[in-house]
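Weekly puzzle thread! Below is a chain. First person to post its structure in token form gets bragging rights.
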Amino acid sequence: MEKGVKITLLICATILIVAILGYFAFNQFAPQNYSDTVNVQGSGVVKAVPDLITIYYSIETQGTTSQDAKDKNDLVFDKLKAELDKVGISSDKLQTQSFSIYENIEWINGKSTKNGFKATHTLQLELPSENFDKVSEAIDSGVAAGAQINSINFELSPTKQSEYKSQAIKLASDDAQNKAQALAEGFGKQVGKLVSVSVDEYYYAPRNLYTNMGGAMTAEATVAKDAVSNLTPSDQDVSARVSATFKIK
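Winning reply:
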């Protein structure tokens, strides 16, 4: 009899422990009840003045071997740096975006023919916006060296992007909170604590001034200089959007 009582007590204790653990697990992992919440989206836009002018170059050379193509490419690259230094633009500002060497395959009458190797080097040159008067010289330097001008943009530096992004997110957050307040008041309620928030979207795009259309190098350089000759940096939009959930009471 005593043994049976012990077994019964053990079973009861086990059931009690399982029930307690189940209660805490349910409360910890069960979905939140959002019936007393309001979901809103907020948006913010900041006007930003670009602080960079970025010129994108490409150097393409062909050779009988991969090394030959690379050596010819290096010569143009070295000449581009020399031409930039000559007009007072530090060649140290040149940054490589990509470099590739590949076998040149040409199609003639539906058949592929191997014709040596090509080397392609793409670079960017960032100039502070106050050096806008140097853009024309940077274009001429590229042409003199044998480099193609791919495009020219007004852009924000990473530091400025981060600064304006923070401002846009702050405006979007204020907008979301104002909307939540208006919704709550419309139903005779008050906004409570913030339940969740996320940044749904951040948008910024450089302003393109010129894009190469595939014409002859000298002709394209003239088009590029004409495109930037009468332009000055203008405001660009940096925008953000947030989603927020608030308690209402």
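Puzzle host: Confirmed. Bonus trivia for everyone else. The domain at 52-155 is CATH 3.30.70.2970 (Alpha-Beta Plaits).
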